[in-house]
Prior knowledge:
The chain has helices at residues 20-30, 63-70, 87-98, 116-119, 123-142, 155-160, 188-199, 203-208, 223-234, 248-260, 264-277, 285-289, 293-296, and strands spanning 9-13, 34-40, 53-58, 75-78, 103-105, 145-150, 166-167, 172-176, 183-185, 212-215, 219-221, 242-246. By secondary structure, it is of the alpha/beta class. It contains 13 helices and twelve strands. It starts with 8 loop residues before the first strand and ends in a 10-residue tail after the last helix.
Amino acid sequence: MAATQYLKKIALVGASGQLGTPTLKHLLEQKKFDITLLTRQSSAATFPTDDSITVRAVDYSDKAALVSALQGQQAIVLMLGFEAIPQQEIELIEAAIEAGVTYILPTEFGADNANTELANMVPLNAAKAVVRAKAEELGKKTGAGWIGISNNAWFDYSFKHGNFGIDPKARTATLYDGGKTFFASTLISETGLAIARLLSLPISQLDTLKNKYIYIANLRTNQRQILDAVQTVTKTTDADWKIEHADAREYLDSGIGLMGKGEFMAGMVRRLYGSLFVEGLGGDFETIRGLDNEMLGLEKKDLVEI
Length: 306
């Protein structure tokens, strides 16, 4: 019987970012990978000192340099800013596949973009479909494929920035449709852990996941539950808060107007989070798709503890 084969050589793009930092940490903890970190030549990013890490400063506009830097890599994880999607991400994927990379984790790490209606509500998510299609097209010749991770909104990031409509300091909350609509949510660090554990699976198993999504979540929750958890921690009740109610669909639709006025980020936030607050749009993908937590050894979390 042939020995089980595993990945050894992994390349990361965006390893100093908010997802890249915990991803690199968890990959190092696996103690089984040779990790190449691609950075821009102008980057001042610093990384942990470890014998398994190689840093390659590359001109991202130089395809030949990218191909050279990616030679010998088996997988690449792309953790890019929204401004790099789709064009720069496609260029990186083209170089990766030309260099012989087989497993591509594109910059998904968000909503269930296999749900076309949901994805088309947000221009950024719609653009990711172009990236996946290009990866599939190029991969037909080499056997390469993408694997998407859907984790929905990051809970820690979203809560910190008030995107769930709850402000603990001001003790104000806006509940959309009563705050009763359930949605999936994941911690940033847990997404990094999922990446590391996914890449630690046997190659034979990774092959079955090509050109598919996996779904992870630490929570299935809603605005009301989040507010209840905050009130438990702060020992407050609704009487201590200013709580307003609003229509979720109106909030979602208002994002289009904001983007039309040039307020792209504000509009995108309303489209992203509004889609979570409207019942039936797909934010509750745990109920619709199920979760792959068990495959990756991920656990659910307690809201109050978070």
